[in-house]
DNA sequence: GTGCATTTCTTGACTCGTTCAGGAAAAGCA
DNA sequence: TGCTTTTCCTGAACGAGTCAAGAAATGCAC
């Protein structure tokens, strides 16, 4: 649970105006890591029943641009957001149910970042997605696999 | 340029029926690495002017399931396909123009795959996307960056 | 080669996450 | 408190991808 005053301070800290939709959305992202936009809309509406979906989309973009939240979108998924930023962690995604978990990067800050055979690109981030099956899907689908 | 007979053999090799749409699409993916679905439709229609977009979607799914092509989808992009499969290579994506290039993985087969803190997931693939700026966007956007 | 069961393709409609647009409301500074 | 700018709301629109049902083609058996 995050304090509202703290969230407001965070918003001001990056030069964003403090509005009720922004506080509600930022709080929702803190409380529901890896949630998709619709879940965030629902969560924000528990604080602020009349926020429009458009406001949530706008706020998520503003928060993302400001670096307060991170947008992730594994292949085949809708956009998801998390409040854990700036620590270069990665994700495991379940191929079956789509659930996501965090993985701390054991390779340090940025794996494979050795500007070798990079085709002249100037690289600033290495994003890693691990694909597999989550514990529950693993037990469910392994049996009966023809 | 790939031989048609060769493509047919490839299709039969994985147990897929040989049809004109399949040959045309497979050829298109070979000729246009990292192309999106619409580009593939256009390319396939140079061989087969009346293929429906639905057929291309179906064929791409069949080819992907059969392992003949690989589907990639960097965040914010539509689905893209490539015929280079089974060699665990990765991609650099330009944040500005979205262009994609291949990167051979220098870490070996599967980086960071050490079942540690994996939350019980059984991981089968580690996908890496490098984000940055391609050579042309790099020179264009670096100047005049306020 | 023919016939037939099965797969695949075509047509056309539709879903749904996301974005666009214009006016109303709120934030924050003087 | 008043004013300018940003943000939010309402409502419509976009577009990649999917669904559905019937027509056509594939490839095997004969």
TrEMBL record, chains A, B:
Ranges that cross the membrane: none
A Gene Ontology cellular-component term: cytoplasm
One Gene Ontology term from the biological process aspect of the record: regulation of secondary metabolite biosynthetic process
Compartment(s): Cytoplasm
InterPro entries: FUR (IPR002481), Fur_C (IPR043135), WH-like_DNA-bd_sf (IPR036388), WH_DNA-bd_sf (IPR036390)
Main location: cytoplasm
One term of GO molecular function: DNA-binding transcription factor activity
Database matches in Pfam families: FUR
Domain of life: Bacteria
Keywords: Cytoplasm, DNA-binding, Iron, Metal-binding, Repressor, Transcription, Transcription regulation, Zinc
The record's free-text note on cofactor binding: Binds 1 zinc ion per subunit.
Family of this protein: Belongs to the Fur family.
Name recorded for this polypeptide: Transcriptional repressor
Lineage of producing organism: Bacteria, Bacillati, Actinomycetota, Actinomycetes, Propionibacteriales
